[in-house]
Amino acid sequence: MSKKYLTINQAAKLIGVTPLTLRNWDNARKFQAFRHPINNYRVYTLDQIEGLLKKLGMPKPAKKLVIQVLED
């Protein structure tokens, strides 16, 4: 994985929903997550989050956001 990925908790905070909502959207194929190759956790790219926020008519996340990155 060469891109930086957000955990489900980080993505949920940026979007303003709960992690359970993201899991439900993923299961319903409404907003699918990538899966980490080692632990199979759901992860999201910042581009995915920004695309969803744009689609929903919401502002982009702040540029000064500090993101913890999952190591490959």
- Kindly state the number of beta strands: 3
The tally of structural domains comes to: 1
Rounded radius of gyration (Å): 12 Å
**First CA to last CA: what distance?**
6 Å
One letter per element, helices H and strands E, the order comes to EHHEEH
Strand order of the largest sheet: 1-3-2
What sort of overall outline do the alpha carbons produce when their principal axes are compared? globular
pLDDT under 50 segments (min length 5)?
none
Mean pLDDT: 86
Broad CATH class: Mainly Alpha
Strand content: 5-15%
Count of helical segments? 3
Give a short account of the largest sheet. 3 strands, antiparallel
Pfam families: MerR (PF00376)
GO molecular function, one term: DNA binding
Protein name: HTH merR-type domain-containing protein
GO biological process, one term: regulation of DNA-templated transcription
Write the layout of secondary structure elements.
Elements: E1 5-7, H1 8-15, H2 19-27, E2 34-35, E3 42-45, H3 46-56
Antiparallel strand pairs: 1-3, 2-3
